[in-house]
């Protein structure tokens, strides 16, 4: 299971989600770009800037809730520690 954070090209919004297949979920987000009925589509938030693996769904959901409760400043610091340049992460080439 994964907890992940997406942003938009101007880094003005963050989307936090959970999935058991990160590559598939990122593809799904990219296909919904511009879909006004969904948060990620409305705000074009389909750039992966952070992810972490969790042992199971229960822990992943708990971590997602924890992160969603954080201030934007604290989320930004978490992302910067993991991905200092906030470059969109390509799972095929990411070395961490």
Automatic annotation (TrEMBL):
State the protein's name. Answer: GIY-YIG nuclease family protein
Family per similarity comment? Belongs to the UPF0213 family.
**Domain GIY-YIG, first and last residues per copy:** 1-77
Q: Which CDD domains does the UniProt record give?
A: GIY-YIG_unchar_3
- One Pfam annotation reads GIY-YIG
Cross-referenced Gene3D superfamilies, in alphabetical order?
GIY-YIG endonuclease
């Amino acid at each position: 299971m994964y907890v992940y954070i997406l942003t938009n090209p101007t880094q003005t919004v963050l989307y936090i989600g959970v999935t058991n297949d990160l590559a598939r979920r990122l593809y799904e987000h990219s296909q919904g770009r511009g879909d006004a009925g969904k948060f990620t589509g409305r705000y074009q938030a389909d750039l992966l800037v952070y992810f972490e693996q969790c042992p199971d769904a229960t822990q992943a959901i708990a971590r997602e809730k924890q992160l969603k409760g954080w201030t934007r400043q604290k989320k930004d610091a978490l992302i910067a520690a993991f991905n200092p340049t906030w470059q969109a992460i390509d799972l095929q080439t990411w070395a961490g």
